[in-house]
């Protein structure tokens, strides 16, 4: 039978918006020593602002936003949704994308107004149009940059500002007080962005440019040194969440696939819920043992 203290812990955690899927994950949560955090949508709030546009072809700024947003309607990625919001704010009326193929965490390809369009990270877009990645054209190297290609040609970059959630430094300090000795970032985004966004957080390591499979490898490598918790929001995080001792999904606005793969779902859209979650788990385990 499951000790009463654990059951009570589950229900107390739920009051804080932390849905723990059973006594086993609750116990595991109390023993975590390493934390791996996703960036976009987890450490950042995933509601980035479109701050500038680099024109690289013969489309205007409005046309760049139009094509990127029209195609990104097909994606649940937080950056994609921010681009759609920016287009609506500019008064754009978006057609529905056709023949859509999404590569989770990298970008989307499809047809807009009968023209082939690719939107996503610079490396992904370059690979789709068989062009070299034009590093030097990325003026704002420390910001999230989304590339757009139309008719097989690179047309522009959308520069997005994606800031840390308020209170992130305090949260990490609190987690360290609870015994989490090692905190890492694992992101599909570029290293320069990851370093700028997390400057001052004193992370133990940053793993950047990761595919979903590489996020799994980071989790498995860290597990050799003890129980690992992985927190993420995206479809690209789901395999890593499943590979961790405790996978935690940002449930309120995250992808359904990540919530399914996770052991713990944060029903409130903020990583600061980890703190009461772990505190409650540690107390429940002390009482139950
Ligand atoms: P993280 O792993 O930190 O959550 P992601 O791997 O989800 O980051 O995203 C990394 C980068 O990939 C984004 O900053 C963006 O440049 C690009 N990207 C991924 N999917 C899309 C999309 N659907 N539309 C536009 N850009 C995308
Ligand atoms: Mg993410």
TrEMBL record:
This is P-type Zn(2+) transporter. It comes from the Bacteria. The chain holds residues 278 to 566 of 621 of the full protein. Belongs to the cation transport ATPase (P-type) (TC 3.A.3) family. Type IB subfamily. It is found in: Cell membrane; Membrane. It comes from Ancylobacter radicis.
């Amino acid at each position: 039978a499951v000790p009463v203290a654990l059951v009570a812990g589950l229900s107390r955690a739920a009051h804080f918006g932390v849905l723990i899927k059973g006594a086993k994950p609750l116990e595991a949560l109390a023993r975590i020593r390493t934390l791996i955090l996703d960036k976009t949508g987890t450490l950042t709030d995933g509601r980035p602002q479109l701050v500038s546009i680099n024109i690289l072809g013969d489309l205007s700024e409005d046309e760049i936003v139009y094509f990127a947003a029209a195609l990104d309607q097909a994606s649940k990625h937080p950056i994609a949704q921010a681009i759609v919001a920016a287009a609506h704010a500019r008064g754009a009326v978006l057609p529905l994308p056709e023949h859509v193929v999404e590569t989770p965490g990298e970008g989307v390809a499809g047809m807009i107004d009968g023209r082939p369009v690719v939107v996503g990270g610079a490396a992904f877009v370059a690979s789709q149009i068989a062009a070299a990645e034009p590093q030097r054209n990325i003026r704002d190297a420390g910001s999230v940059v989304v590339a757009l290609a139309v008719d097989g040609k690179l047309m522009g970059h959308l520069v997005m500002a994606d800031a840390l959630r308020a209170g992130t430094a305090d949260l990490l300090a609190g987690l360290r007080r609870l015994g989490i000795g090692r905190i890492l970032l694992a992101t599909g985004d570029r290293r320069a962005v990851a370093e700028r966004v997390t400057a001052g957080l004193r992370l133990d390591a940053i793993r950047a440019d990761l595919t979903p499979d590489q996020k799994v490898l980071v989790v498995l490598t860290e597990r050799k040194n003890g129980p690992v918790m992985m927190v993420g929001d995206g479809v690209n995080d789901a395999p890593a969440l499943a590979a961790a001792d405790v996978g935690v999904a940002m449930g309120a606005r995250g992808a359904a696939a990540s919530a399914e793969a996770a052991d713990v779902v944060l029903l409130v859209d903020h990583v600061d819920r980890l703190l009461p979650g772990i505190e409650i788990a540690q107390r429940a385990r002390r009482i139950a043992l």
